[in-house]
Specification:
CATH superfamily of the largest domain in chain B: VC0802-like
Helix content of chain B: 25-40%
Radius of gyration of chain B: 16 Å
Shape of chain B: globular
CATH architecture of the largest domain in chain B: 2-Layer Sandwich
Number of domains of chain A: 2
Largest sheet of chain B: 7 strands, antiparallel
CATH topology of the largest domain in chain A: Rossmann fold
Largest sheet of chain A: 9 strands, mixed
Strand content of chain A: 15-25%
Helix content of chain A: 25-40%
Distance between the termini of chain B: 21 Å
Oligomer: heterodimer
Number of helices of chain B: 5
Structural class of chain B: alpha+beta
CATH architecture of the largest domain in chain A: 3-Layer(aba) Sandwich
Number of helices of chain A: 12
Chain lengths: ~450, ~140
């Protein structure tokens, strides 16, 4: 590919709307036929009285029943697969604290296509084989690690799998290896900048950074601007989820006006989370994705639970792939904190292990100095002691137990019983005051 | 030798203390002495009052997080150095004081405290002939 081309895959990136939709129908039909190899989808279609031949147009996708995370859990580990296991070469899994974990399988072709998507994104924001890409994302099961690794390598960059943490070493890599592009969760970029400042490193003077890829954690436009000002580079928003593959699904172009979701790889729908009917462009609804190129585990109409809206279907960059707003929240109670997915039930489970605590609790998420913080208020069962030491020890024990579960340290606050709001029916457990949702 | 003290969990938020005081007011319970200590998030409000058992039940019914605690109460002469004198005795016995507060009632100094070792403290009080007082004595002092 010519370095001067703005597109890595011009044959797909510059398709007209008509061409995109024609391609989507063909790929949807092929995907649905392929899904009949999966015991789960075969049964689903039979129950719905639906045959693969019934899918004749793009609108027919709405005839297909939704797939949910619960379906992934119930078919754990391999019940969703549409190919024999011997054809799979990779497995990614989410933590299973709220029941069974979820498993996502990949064939070699799936991994190749995943890498192609990430490479397309990185090319789109101006990166070329001469660039040096440092990935400060967690590796292992977290798809932000290997996903960006393979994508950056596919593009041809020198790629540094720095992984998460150890800020001083990260900064040394950056300065010594001439890192020009960095991928990290936004709160970690802020942290890195603080450490740079403390160590007299000026990112503008001492590094060659020119592009940041940030994602896996909700953040506001204001936060992005601040991060850009700190490091003196452009920061591009990345969207991914392990169910679809990982990072790569959507990415901002240099216009920075919404994320292009790659419609040669996915069918994008935005639906009302209550009625499940489509919402008009511009209105916020739940993102529903259908994979069009996956072999091992295609997913049809997967409810992502992420809330967003359609911004447009054209762009000055020349790409007509749908543009979606940054994620505006969740239609379930999952929280995303520093790239970690957390459900309130995980926190509840830990709190209930302490007999000194009551059953009422409230999680409050805030943004302080660009960092996500979480306060867990929990009612004490009764005044079981007159001793401060024991109250403080309890606070410490609860904090440690929660940290072991969610991998982040919460601010635990004991409150008197009866002081937290108890709502009728479903109790309010999470208050999200983070700037991103304002 | 000990008196009953209310220990109330108080959130660091306006109005929470008032709720406790209003329950006591309505029940015509007299506060003889009280103290609040606080951390950032919460505090313990410790109260010596008339009829602590009734106060405890009423507050508990009102949904207040509360416990009844036995604390030591000794009477001291109202002149300088008496508290130092008393604490020296405990220090020499190797007993540490968890918390302490003091007040004057009709010219008598009263020291309320909790220690790390209740049994040993009792011995120390008896052996050193300290004047310990009960809820009844406190009540009558307060009513004089």
């Amino acid at each position: 590919m010519d370095d001067k081309s703005p597109y890595l895959h011009p044959q797909f990136e510059t398709l007209s709307r008509e061409e995109i939709e024609k391609l989507q129908v063909e790929r949807l039909q092929a995907t649905v036929r392929h899904c009949m190899n999966s015991p789960f989808y075969k049964k689903r279609f039979e129950e719905a009285g639906l045959k693969p031949e019934d899918i004749k147009s793009l609108a027919d996708v709405r005839k297909i029943p939704f797939t949910t995370k619960q379906d992934l859990r119930e078919t754990y580990p391999f019940g969703m697969a549409s190919v024999p296991l011997r054809e799979c070469v990779r497995l990614h899994s989410s933590s299973g604290t709220t029941g069974n974990p979820t498993v996502i399988l990949h064939t070699q072709k799936d991994l190749d296509e995943w890498a192609n998507q990430v490479a397309r994104n990185l090319w789109m924001v101006g990166l070329r084989p001469d660039d040096v890409f440092q990935n400060s994302s967690g590796y292992g099961m977290f798809t932000g690690g290997l996903g960006f690794q393979y994508g950056a390598e596919r593009l041809g960059m020198l790629t540094i799998p720095a992984a998460a943490g150890n800020s001083l070493r990260q900064i040394k890599f950056m300065t010594d290896f001439g890192t020009t592009a960095l991928h990290a969760v936004p709160s970690y970029v802020t942290r890195l900048y603080e450490v740079m400042k403390d160590n007299g490193v000026d990112p503008r003077r001492d590094t060659k950074l020119k592009v940041l890829a940030i994602g896996a954690e909700p953040h506001s436009e204001e936060q992005r601007k601040r991060i850009e000002n700190m490091l003196g580079v452009k920061a591009y928003n990345s969207f991914g989820m392990s169910e679809m593959c990982g990072p790569g699904v959507g990415f901002e172009c240099q216009e920075q006006n919404g994320l292009h979701f790659w419609e040669d790889y996915y069918i994008v729908e935005i639906v009302d989370p209550e009625t499940l009917e489509p919402v008009p462009d511009g209105e916020i609804g739940e993102l529903v994705l259908t994979t069009l190129c996956r072999e091992a585990m295609p997913l049809l109409r997967y409810r992502t639970r992420d809330l967003t809206r359609v911004l447009g279907r054209s762009c000055p960059c020349g790409r007509n792939h749908i543009r979606l707003d940054r994620m505006r929240g969740r239609s379930d109670d999952m929280m995303v904190l520093r790239g970690v997915n957390i459900f309130p039930i995980q926190i509840e489970k830990i709190l209930m292990q302490f007999k000194e605590l009551g059953s009422n609790y409230l999680i409050t998420l805030t943004t302080d100095d660009d960092n996500d913080n979480r306060t867990v208020e929990v009612e004490i069962a009764d005044m079981f002691t007159d001793d401060y030491g024991r109250l403080q020890q309890l606070t410490k024990d609860v904090t440690r137990a929660l940290k072991d579960e969610i991998l982040l340290t919460p601010h635990v606050k004991l409150v008197p019983k009866g002081s937290l709001p108890v709502s009728e029916g479903k109790a309010v457990r999470v208050v999200d005051k983070r700037k991103v949702y304002q | 030798m000990t008196v009953q003290q209310l220990s109330i969990f108080i959130e660091n938020k306006s109005g929470t203390l008032l709720k406790v005081l209003e329950v006591l007011e309505e029940a015509k319970i007299q506060i003889i002495a009280s103290t609040i200590s606080d951390t950032v998030d919460y505090g313990i409000y410790r109260v010596i009052c008339s009829d602590p058992s009734r106060a405890y039940l009423l507050l508990k019914e009102a949904g207040i997080s509360i416990t009844l605690t036995d604390v030591f109460a000794v009477e001291l002469e109202n002149k300088p150095g008496q508290a130092a004198c008393a604490m020296k005795i405990f220090a020499q016995a190797g007993i540490s004081i968890n918390y302490m507060y003091s007040f004057l009632v009709h010219g008598k100094g009263i020291l309320i405290f909790r220690t790390s070792d209740t049994e040993k403290s009792r011995e120390v009080i008896v052996l050193n002939k300290m004047t310990s007082i009960t809820n009844d004595i406190l009540n009558s002092l307060a009513e004089e």
